[in-house]
Amino acid sequence: MMSDTITSYTSLLMGGLVAFSLTGTVSVQCVVYYRLYPQESERLKGLVACVWLLDLIHSAFIGASLYQYFIAWFGESSQIDVIPWSVAFTVVITAFQTFIAHCFFANKIYRSSQQNVYLTAPVVFLALLRLIAAATSTGEMISDKHYSVFTRPYPGWIFTTGLTLSSVVDVLIAACLCYLLRKLKSQIGSASTVMIKVVDTLTLYTLENGFLTGVATTASLICWLAMPHNLSFLGLHFVIEKLYANSILASLNTRKELRDMRPRISPWADRSLPVLSADDFSDRPRDPLNPLNPLDRYSSRPDSPTKSHIPVGLFSDLLCVPGFKLSYHS
């Protein structure tokens, strides 16, 4: 139908434009990351480089797809049913980027939950199934060559499964991180306004990341199921990879903002504060001006605050910052 053809071309064009603009955001975030964290571990630098490279490759495949539809096949509306190889490869690149993002956040859950396999294993397992489903979908797209064939019950259900699993994993990750953050906040109590503020900010970031990727994936899934005869789902699918790439980079780059909360909030901001360690969370109160020494050396100080008893590693692992420094006084 003519209306489906117009909808398909419009969706491809709009999806491509949004995807290219988000690629610019990804590139800016990568540059910001390398400038903010020059001393970061090679492992994290390599992760960012991989995310950036996959995003650029994904954009190249989108560009090749748009060239095929709008230039090479200009005026041939019947070709809208043909699946170019470049479109098929955008699906598998999206799957790899999604898998990296899911594993990145699964690692944060694992470290922050004191290596709780029961929380982490379902996330990794479902993320792996999503990758397999997307890779299989790519193979079927290349083999079938036409959307009218690909949208049949088989292999259509494979693509449906991949998008569904992606949304489910997003919800699981957001739920696990929010649970851990809420648990941490309850353990902090009212002992530290600084940490409570940072935990609230982390919770907001977690919900925002999960919301954006989840909404885009769910919208693509709905269009795929409700409108299989046009390419609305594909225009949305172009954007999904970019959102996952941005979620990883935003999680890394916002660490500096979280650390900068200390001078804005803490009354001890001009002091040199220690790295959180197991000794810091002992029941013995410490002096605010010299936290490495017991308070009994300053027993005459009546207004010296005490520390809250917080499990070591939980907070710093959520931030994913080695040697993260933070004032823990109220």
From TrEMBL:
Domain (DUF6534) ranges: 166-256
Which domain of life does this protein belong to? Answer: Eukaryota
Task: Report TM segments.
Answer: 12-34, 46-70, 82-105, 117-137, 157-181, 202-227
Query: Would the keyword Transmembrane be found if you checked this record's keyword annotation?
Result: yes
Keyword match Transmembrane:
yes
For this UniProt record, the keywords arranged alphabetically read as follows: Membrane, Transmembrane, Transmembrane helix
Q: Which Pfam families match?
A: DUF6534
| PANTHER family listed in its UniProt record | CHROMOSOME 1, WHOLE GENOME SHOTGUN SEQUENCE, DUF6534 DOMAIN-CONTAINING PROTEIN
Protein name in the entry: DUF6534 domain-containing protein
Instruction: List the lineage, top down.
Output: Eukaryota, Fungi, Dikarya, Basidiomycota, Agaricomycotina
